[in-house]
Amino acid sequence: MLKTFSVLAVLAIMTTVSAQQQPESALLDRARALHRQVPLIDGHNDYPWAVRENVQRDLDKLDITKPQPTIHTDIARLKAGGVGAQFWSVYTPSDFAGQTAVTATLEQIDIVHQMMRKYPQTFELALGAADVERIFKSGKIASMIGMEGGHSIDNSLAALRMFYRLGARYMTLTHAKNTAWADSATDTPQHGGLTPFGEQVVREMNWLGMLVDLSHVSPDTMTDAIAISEAPVIFSHSSARALNDVPRNVPDGVLQMLPKNGGIVMVTFVPGFLSPKVAAWNNLQTAETNRLQQQFPNDEAARKQGVDAWTKANPAPRATVADAADHIDHIRKVAGIDHIGLGGDFDGITSVPEGLEDVSTYPNLTAELLRRGYKEDEVKKILGLNLLRVWKAAEVAASRLQKQRGPSPMLFERSEAVQQPQFTVVAMGDSTTAGTPGWKSRIEAPPHGEGDATSQYAYWLVRAHPEWRVINQGVNGERSDQILARFDRDVLQQRPNAVVLIAGVNDVYQGRPVSHVVKQLTAMYDVSRAAGIPVIAGTIIPYNTATPDQNARMHEINSWIRKTADGDSVRFVDTRTAAAAPANPDRLFESPDDLHPSPAGYRRMADAIGPVLETVLNREQFHR
Q: Active site residue: 133, 148, 199, 338, which one?
């Protein structure tokens, strides 16, 4: 036995030395050959969010049949990288809440379906493991949908099931913030892991055959989910915490649970998760940013100048492809070769490791593993065979569970010991900005992103108060009589705790007298008062295009609003003053030359509205 072991050990050493001595070109040739043999399945790519953020969901404006050097992904580079299958993330920020999050997630899923339609020669939607294998053999890139954050289902198992019907095949249980039923890795723990409803979410995902993704969740949520799950779990884009102690990485204690569960960690390329040096630098930069925020609370230019100066004096270190391989080595050591995958997080990160700059560079990592002596069969598992095994196991579990029971009837309201109604605000009003030629604010506001003024301040309210349900009912270009005509449907029937009403600017632009606007506002105040819904009455804003006469009539309307507010059923907030730029106090714009509102102005509007809403919240204490 000892002699046999010695011979095998010598052979292993010789294999490793031989791999290390191969020239780089030979290793890359071997790597690319492996990518042709099995699908490289990446667990997380944020191209759909890049489309939303950069080009307002218009694929033609970020056409990946052409080189796109401002992002990490295009078709030529996907093919150069030997990508065989991709989970496209339909991420929405965890600041989004309620129906806002649901709508935004639907819009992101729509982007993926549009990709399939626009690029049928390159992509095909895969709904199961067998689809991935078939599509890969056809020469296309199998495309799957991954939901990033349980906030996207708005505490509804029915919504979860419908997202599955639309093609979602994994869901990350949380993103950066806790949900009402699961703790995040980057938020203050509230639940100690999963609540009873959170456990039911995992069970329902098992029933559907949807992969349970534990990237972003707290260690307690990780262990709870693994204990509950009847199928293998995944970490779609995480690395090893023992090598870099950041909350987003996976502790060894959890890695040790994977052999029994069957799950995998798809090693991510986020530099701050790979390299302790990068993580430490990130912390220092954050500390400097916070210091400058305190020093210059109202001077964004000074803060930016300070951060730029600090960054120039303290150059950022770089993570490398070797760092990614180190994390793979560690997970192999603790959990085993069967429990590793890849999840680059391209287009979801602002910096990249050396050697892993975009989706064309996967062969560099494959070559590095070969250089370290990984056998080709082991590399194939990491590239995609492990993920296919996990997915097939989830499908088998779903088939068994669906024979045993139907969909869960559990409702969130019945699942937790203490539930309180969500504070609901309707944002109502008109606007003159949406679709204006040259409009340049890049904010995309919930729920539909038209870009009108109501959407803009509603967006910032959601960002400041993600626990609130903010319903945007603004329609661009409406007069006050048109708003009144739909007030019952769009305000009263929503049963909100308050309505924010800013209306009248279009009446003035269309030549209607002040008395007309006053009449419509009075009617809206009266019906709200009768329904017991407080009105947050905001002042309208004279734009740079207003004539002196229009300006004067707007000021007259604003004076009436101020005088009419009674501090109870109608609460005044001077949104005009809040939104005005310091250099141009009579208007919303940052300078007299601007023709369109500034995002900073809209944010100041929300900052003024928020405290007034909080007075309503404190009075009602959620009791209608």
A: 148
